[in-house]
C-alpha cells in the first residue's frame, strides 16, 4: 500500500526473504517464470496508462503496430530528452525512419513485459524462488525483456538503445557516447 504524510509518500511492499544465491537451476526457473508472464497477451501494444521507468516517464496508450509504438512511445521521447540535455545523436532521425527494416521477417505479438529487466531487478528468495521487481510494465515484443541477455542479436541493440537513452537522461555521462555509437551502428545495420 501507499502511505502519505506531510506531502511525502512511501510504498510499502511485502517482505520477501532474499539471499537464495544463484545457480543454473535458479536461472532456469526465472526463465520459465518469465515465459509464463510473456504468455499473457493483448490485441495491441502498450498499457492502459502511462507509467515510469526509474524516474523517467514512460508513455503508453495502445497501438496495433509495434514499429509505431516503439518509435513514438519509446525511442522518440528518449531521443528528444537526450537532445534537450545536449546529446547530438547524429543519425537518430534516420534510425526512426528505418525501424521497419528490423521487422521485415518478424512480427511480434503484444506480450506482457516486465519492461526494465536487468540484473538489478532480479533476486532469489531464501528457498531459491526467483523474484523480479520494479517493473515498467506494458504489452510489447517479448524480445525487449530478453535483449540484455543477447539472445536476439538482430534487434538487441535497438531495444537496448531505449535503456541507454533512459540512463543518459537519468545519469548523463558515458551513456550518451554509447547511445550515439549504437544509433550509428543501427543505421548501418538497417541497410540504409
List the helices and strands and how they pair.
Layout (H helix, E strand, L loop, with lengths): L1 E4 L2 E4 L12 H15 L6 E3 L3 E3 L2 E3 L2 E3 L2 H19 L7 H7 L12 E3 L8 E3 L5 E3 L5 E3 L2 H4 L6 H19 L3 H15 L3
Antiparallel strand pairs: 1-2, 3-6, 4-5, 7-10, 8-9
Helix pairs in contact: 2-5, 3-6, 5-6
Which terms would index this structure?
192 residues; alpha+beta; two-stranded antiparallel sheet; 6 helices; 10 strands; 41% helix; globular
Characterise the protein shown here.
The chain is of the alpha+beta class and 192 residues long. Helix content is 41%, strand content 17%. The strands form five sheets. It has a two-stranded antiparallel ribbon with strand order 1-2. β1 (2-5) and β2 (8-11) form a beta hairpin. α3 crosses α6 and α5 (153-171) runs antiparallel to α6 (175-189). The N and C termini lie far apart (50 Å).
Work out the helicity level. 40-55%
Number of helices: 6
Q: Structural class from helices and strands? A: alpha+beta
Gyration radius over CA: 18 Å
Mean pLDDT: 93
Head-to-tail CA distance between termini: 50 Å
Number of strands: 10
Mass-distribution shape: globular
Main beta-sheet annotation = 2 strands, antiparallel
Read across the widest sheet, the strand sequence of neighbours is: 1-2
Unreliable parts: none
Compressed to H and E, one letter per element, the order equals EEHEEEEHHEEEEHHH
Amino acid at each position: 500500500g501507499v502511505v502519505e504524510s506531510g506531502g511525502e509518500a512511501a510504498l510499502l511492499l511485502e517482505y520477501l526473504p532474499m539471499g537464495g544465491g544463484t545457480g543454473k537451476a535458479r536461472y532456469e526457473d526465472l526463465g520459465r517464470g518469465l515465459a509464463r508472464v510473456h504468455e499473457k497477451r493483448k490485441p495491441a501494444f502498450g498499457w492502459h496508462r502511462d507509467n515510469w521507468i526509474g524516474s523517467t516517464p514512460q508513455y503508453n496508450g495502445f497501438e496495433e503496430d509495434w514499429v509505431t509504438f516503439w518509435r513514438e512511445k519509446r525511442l522518440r521521447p528518449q531521443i528528444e530528452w537526450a537532445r534537450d540535455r545536449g546529446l547530438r545523436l547524429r543519425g537518430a532521425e534516420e534510425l526512426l525512419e528505418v525501424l521497419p527494416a528490423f521487422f521485415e521477417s518478424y512480427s511480434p505479438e503484444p506480450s506482457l513485459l516486465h519492461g526494465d529487466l536487468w540484473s538489478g531487478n532480479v533476486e532469489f528468495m531464501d528457498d531459491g524462488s526467483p523474484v523480479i521487481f520494479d517493473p515498467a510494465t506494458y504489452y510489447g515484443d517479448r524480445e525487449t525483456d530478453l535483449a540484455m541477455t543477447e539472445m536476439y542479436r538482430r534487434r538487441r541493440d535497438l531495444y537496448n538503445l531505449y535503456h541507454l537513452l533512459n540512463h543518459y537522461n537519468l545519469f548523463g555521462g558515458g551513456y550518451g557516447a554509447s547511445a550515439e555509437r549504437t544509433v550509428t551502428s543501427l543505421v548501418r545495420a538497417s541497410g540504409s
